[in-house]
């Protein structure tokens, strides 16, 4: 069963940009839009504790106003409001588990700081079981104009990027866009290659042809499944993050896979996803590797 497109909102400009993006995507995919607002009672020494009900009404009214604006903009779209009491991380992670994808906002973008991704966004991205799309404040529908691509990073063996590739192709179908599949490679220390991989590279005619064959193999099942989606195979020497960012200007959406790394202080996303999230010029989808 396909879940809704879910947007996490809190009344800020960046969350409203995420809501607008989520609504357009829900229309494209003919899915329900679910608007989730997490809240936790904040007692005030100057107020009576009974103001819990007043705070909840305020939160619900704010969420309903956001939904009303979206419903007016997209009259045929099914929209549901889901106000949940609890911490934002656990609430949004739970909402993501029920969704086709979760959409969150960032606090902006700049040439130095990139996406201003707060601790809540980082934790949700690292822990969510479904794709999470990050949309920066100021994002506009005009950025999704025809001719731009869905850019997706591919690395490792075909199964290592299967979830990200599937998401990219499904998004391209919904938008009538092309997919640009990017595989970056570097010259590693000799000890980084096993004798088996060195033999495969030699049989392929060198390292770059080997990388091109690896990308083609990863794309093959998705080309067969989505034959009408134009595909650009992009193999370039460099770090994965830098190569992806170099083509972000032509992207409607950047798709990266992630493996969450557990540490003593919680889950952390990988370096490629982290770099792209902080510096991409377009919305970024982070897709769990499975």
From TrEMBL:
InterPro entries listed in its UniProt record: Rossmann-like_a/b/a_fold, Universal_stress_UspA, UspA
Family note: Belongs to the universal stress protein A family.
The species this protein was found in: Streptomyces achromogenes
Pfam families: Usp (PF00582)
Ranges annotated as spanning the membrane: none
Gene3D superfamilies for the chain: HUPs (3.40.50.620)
Protein name per UniProt: Nucleotide-binding universal stress UspA family protein
Domain UspA: start-end pairs: 1-136, 150-288
Domain of life of the organism encoding this protein: Bacteria
């Amino acid at each position: 069963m396909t879940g809704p497109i879910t947007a996490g909102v809190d009344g800020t400009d960046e969350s409203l940009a995420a809501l607008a993006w989520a609504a357009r995507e829900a229309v494209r995919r003919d899915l329900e839009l679910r608007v989730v607002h997490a809240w936790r009672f904040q007692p005030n020494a100057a107020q009576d504790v009974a103001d819990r009900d007043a705070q909840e009404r305020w939160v619900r009214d704010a969420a309903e106003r956001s939904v009303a604006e979206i419903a007016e903009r997209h009259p045929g779209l099914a929209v549901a409001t889901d106000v949940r009491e609890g911490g934002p991380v656990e609430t949004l992670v739970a909402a993501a588990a029920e969704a086709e994808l979760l959409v969150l906002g960032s606090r902006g973008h700049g040439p130095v700081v990139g996406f201003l991704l707060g601790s809540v966004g980082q934790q949700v991205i690292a822990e969510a079981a479904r794709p999470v799309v990050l949309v920066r404040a100021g994002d506009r529908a005009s950025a999704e104009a025809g001719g731009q691509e869905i850019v997706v990073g591919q690395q490792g063996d075909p199964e290592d990027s299967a979830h990200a590739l599937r998401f990219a192709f499904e998004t391209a179908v919904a938008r009538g866009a092309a997919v640009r599949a990017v595989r970056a490679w570097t010259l590693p220390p000799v000890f980084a290659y096993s004798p088996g991989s060195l033999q495969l590279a030699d049989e392929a005619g060198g390292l770059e042809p080997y990388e091109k064959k690896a990308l083609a193999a990863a794309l093959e099942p998705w080309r067969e499944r989505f034959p009408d989606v134009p595909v650009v195979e992009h193999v370039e020497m460099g770090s994965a993050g830098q190569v992806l960012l170099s083509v972000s200007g032509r992207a409607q959406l950047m798709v990266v896979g992630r493996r969450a790394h557990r540490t003593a202080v919680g889950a952390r996303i990988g370096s490629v996803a982290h770099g792209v999230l902080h510096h991409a010029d377009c919305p970024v989808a982070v897709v769990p590797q499975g």
